[in-house]
């Protein structure tokens, strides 16, 4: 359809792909993965229409011009706006806009429908078809009347899909704001289908392979899981509780698609119980994949290893893909084509990622990040430790998971030992299932008291070090959790040379993931072997790390974080008597950039002061009181406020400020359907500090991987390069802007190659104790 023998691309080996082949392949892939197959197919056929121009054909065949010098991403939108007969039907006019947004942005990022200041640059550009730089009329004249007729038939089928989508949204959502937010997500979803198909076809072309669509056969994985879970011991009280919870989760797999809550106390086996539910639910409901989302300050490798072990799959099997929040995928629009194509695709049956990666993918406007959105449809998405989500992101998160469930057929499982009332916010926009509690295990742990919380007075770093050594001496080991990397580093440096007879370990996000996993492995070995050990960690150890200390010390934080810290103490009931978890404010711990932690800390201190001594601070009543205060008065903050621009939630729903400013500028009402400020919202949104850059540390196996990558053919795209870059994720470290600047000044960073833009950290600036540092480590220079 549409294309003849014109060329779409040529690779480094001078192999060519025709426009017809590329358009057909992208259409085949996008229709296979899309919930709106006719719409996605139509977008696919039109997305590269601009390559029909004589100027582009001359360039691709070796003529003059630099890459990107011939514009080809707007002509398909011009054609759709001009030739398709819409009869003024709203759904047909909306379809034209949705197509235009996807087509024009497929190498870049989604534009704003209206910017917050009321400007409409995108829609203004859609009126510029006559500009000579587009060669639009030349291109349009190459399309025959017969081809236009075929496209019109496909357009009419697509209109029916959009009409059905609008009906579905209207029936699913209670509020106009939520419905508008869902419409914006629908644009992102269609865009994701196009980008994923376009990049996948480019990759397949380069490696000389064909697209083969297949659904995961969940039966073998489920059988292996059941065989291995049956071998687990159930001799202890806690083992019996875990088995009961796991069996209930398996039975709950018969539930319909929806959003459910899994409330399980720490140490109750949430990871494997939720996976058991997911495997059986996928098998019964024919879901495509399982996406396991862990907190952004957690450790991805332990979850991946636990799942690999119970499913008996090798790290390189392709069954499980770990996608880190500091992944090495391209961020900028000018990234090399090689690196763009190497950007990770979520096509494995099981994806393990972070909340940072999940939220910043769907909230993005960038093609590389939004590509993953299409893979979230028809899946089971497990959010572990959901209470870790920042307050500012709650309303946007609720809309995203509601859209995934109600519109894209995903089942969502919200897991926590301290379930926050996300559905009870002012917007009430979390569309839970009719009976949202997946199982009822409220009474399972009531007779088993493992810890007591002991509130202590404020201490500084030095007195904390003394207190830690005292408690470690009494108990044989001790875990200390603080709120910041600086505090963890300072406390570690204070203790490491004073704690004679103890192995002192450190954990923080300054260390690459492979390093953190090695420290946890070492820690487990010490604890199991009776070696005296002290661990100083940031809060990343609190969620998803299966480890048990005899004593835990926690710098003051929210009661939810304290509950998670307590879950690392006497976790398996090793002591019949409850063990102590000591909590106190740490003097000098700067929380200026961590407002949620600071607020949680203040609320917890108020609750402690209001309670009688000896009251259980981890019971349901105290936790409910904490969340009541934590959420109280935070409704506006849950919309993610952004100064003069209102809020990110508003930008992505009706964008009333943008429409009002447009009216003030022009004196007219805005006449288009898509008002969302996609690009402006993306520019403002971040789960963590956005000013970080990931670099690769030469730690452990990274050195061999770097050598393997550099031995690959230069300027040639290979499957091996993709696999190596995926593996290098485990050795990446996020650096703040000031850290990056210092290391650049010290010439401590060098490029991996000329293609990817990935930076390598000099090994003399990576400590085997604490990870990336800004000053050279003298010990590393001693041979």
TrEMBL record:
Alphabetically ordered keywords of this record: Antiviral defense, ATP-binding, Helicase, Hydrolase, Metal-binding, Nuclease, Nucleotide-binding
Helicase ATP-binding domain span: 251-437
Cross-referenced Gene3D superfamilies: 1.10.3210.30, P-loop containing nucleotide triphosphate hydrolases (3.40.50.300)
InterPro entries xref list: Cas3-like_dom (IPR054712), CRISPR-assoc_Cas3_HD (IPR006483), CRISPR-assoc_Cas3_HD_sf (IPR038257), DEAD/DEAH_box_helicase_dom (IPR011545), Helicase_ATP-bd (IPR014001), Helicase_C-like (IPR001650), Helicase_Cas3_CRISPR-ass_core (IPR006474), P-loop_NTPase (IPR027417)
Annotated ranges, domain HD Cas3-type: 12-200
UniProt similarity note: In the central section; belongs to the CRISPR-associated helicase Cas3 family.
Stated name of the protein: CRISPR-associated helicase Cas3
Source organism (scientific name): Christensenella tenuis
Gene this chain is encoded by: cas3
């Amino acid at each position: 359809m549409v294309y003849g023998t014109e060329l779409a691309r040529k690779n480094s080996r001078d192999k060519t792909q025709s426009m017809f082949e590329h358009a057909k392949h992208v259409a085949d892939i996008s229709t296979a993965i899309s919930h709106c197959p006719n719409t996605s197919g139509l977008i696919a056929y039109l997305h590269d229409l601009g390559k029909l121009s004589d100027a582009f054909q001359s360039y691709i065949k070796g003529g003059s011009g630099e890459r990107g010098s011939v514009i080809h991403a707007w002509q398909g939108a011009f054609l759709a706006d001009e030739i398709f007969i819409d009869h003024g039907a709203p759904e047909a006019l909306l379809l034209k806009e949705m197509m235009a947004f996807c087509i024009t942005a497929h190498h870049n990022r989604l534009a704003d429908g209206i910017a917050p200041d009321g400007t409409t640059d995108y829609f203004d550009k859609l009126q510029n078809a006559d500009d000579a730089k587009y060669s639009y009329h030349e291109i349009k004249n190459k399309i025959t009347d017969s081809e236009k007729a075929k496209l019109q038939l496909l357009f009419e089928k697509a209109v029916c899909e959009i009409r059905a989508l609008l009906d579905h949204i209207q029936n699913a959502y209670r509020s106009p704001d939520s419905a508008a937010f869902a419409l914006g997500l629908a644009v992102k979803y269609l865009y994701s289908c196009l980008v994923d198909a376009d990049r996948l076809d480019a990759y397949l072309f380069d490696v000389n392979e064909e697209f083969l669509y297949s659904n995961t056969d969940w039966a073998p994985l489920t059988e292996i899981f059941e065989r291995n879970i049956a071998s687990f011991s159930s001799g202890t009280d806690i083992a019996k509780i875990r088995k009961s919870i796991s069996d209930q989760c398996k039975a709950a797999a018969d539930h319909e698609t929806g959003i459910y809550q899994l409330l399980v106390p720490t140490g109750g086996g949430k990871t494997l119980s939720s996976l058991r539910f997911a495997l059986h639910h996928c098998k019964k409901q024919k879901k495509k994949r399982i996406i396991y989302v862990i907190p952004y300050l957690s450790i991805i490798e332990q979850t991946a290893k636990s799942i690999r072990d119970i499913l008996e799959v090798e790290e390189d099997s392709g069954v499980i893909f770990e996608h880190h929040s500091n992944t090495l995928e391209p961020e900028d629009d000018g990234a090399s084509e090689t690196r763009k194509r190497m950007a990770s695709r979520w096509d494995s049956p099981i994806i393990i990622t972070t909340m940072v990666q999940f939220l910043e993918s769907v909230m993005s406007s960038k093609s590389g990040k939004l590509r993953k959105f299409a893979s979230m449809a028809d899946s089971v998405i497990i959010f572990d430790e959901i209470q870790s989500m920042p307050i500012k992101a709650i309303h946007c998160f609720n809309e995203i998971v509601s859209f995934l469930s109600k519109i894209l057929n995903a089942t969502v499982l919200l897991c926590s030992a301290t379930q926050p009332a996300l559905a009870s916010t002012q917007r009430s926009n979390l569309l839970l299932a009719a009976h949202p509690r997946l199982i009822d295990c409220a009474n399972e742990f009531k007779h088993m008291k493992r810890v007591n919380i002991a509130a202590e007075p404020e201490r500084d770093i030095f007195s904390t070090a003394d207190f830690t050594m005292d408690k470690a001496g009494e108990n044989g080991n001790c875990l200390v959790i603080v709120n910041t990397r600086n505090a963890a580093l300072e406390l570690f440096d204070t203790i490491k040379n004073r704690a004679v007879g103890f192995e002192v370990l450190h954990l923080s996000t300054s260390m690459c993931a492979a390093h953190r996993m090695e420290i946890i492995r070492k820690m487990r070995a010490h604890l199991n072997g009776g070696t005296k050990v002290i661990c100083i960690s940031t809060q990343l150890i609190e969620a998803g790390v299966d480890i048990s200390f005899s004593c835990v010390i926690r710098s003051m934080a929210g009661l939810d974080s304290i509950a998670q810290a307590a879950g690392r103490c006497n976790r398996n009931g090793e002591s019949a008597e409850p063990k102590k978890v000591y909590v106190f404010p740490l003097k000098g711990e700067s929380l200026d950039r961590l407002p949620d932690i600071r607020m949680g800390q203040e609320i917890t201190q108020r609750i402690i002061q209001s309670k009688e001594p000896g009251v259980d601070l981890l019971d349901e009543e105290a936790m409910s009181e904490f969340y009541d205060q934590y959420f109280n008065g935070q409704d506006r903050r849950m919309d993610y406020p952004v100064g003069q621009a209102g809020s990110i939630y508003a930008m992505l729903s009706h964008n009333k400020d943008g429409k009002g400013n447009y009216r003030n500028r022009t004196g007219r009402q805005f006449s288009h359907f898509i008002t969302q400020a996609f690009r402006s919202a993306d520019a403002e949104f971040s789960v963590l500090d956005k000013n970080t850059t990931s670099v690769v540390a030469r730690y452990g196996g990274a050195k061999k991987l770097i050598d393997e990558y550099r031995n690959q053919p230069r300027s040639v795209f290979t499957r091996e390069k993709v696999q190596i870059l995926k593996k290098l994720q485990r050795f990446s470290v996020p650096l703040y802007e000031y850290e990056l600047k210092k290391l650049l000044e010290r010439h401590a960073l060098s490029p991996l190659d000329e293609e990817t833009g990935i930076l390598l950290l000099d090994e003399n600036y990576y400590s085997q104790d604490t990870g990336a540092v800004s000053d050279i480590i003298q010990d590393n220079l001693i041979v």
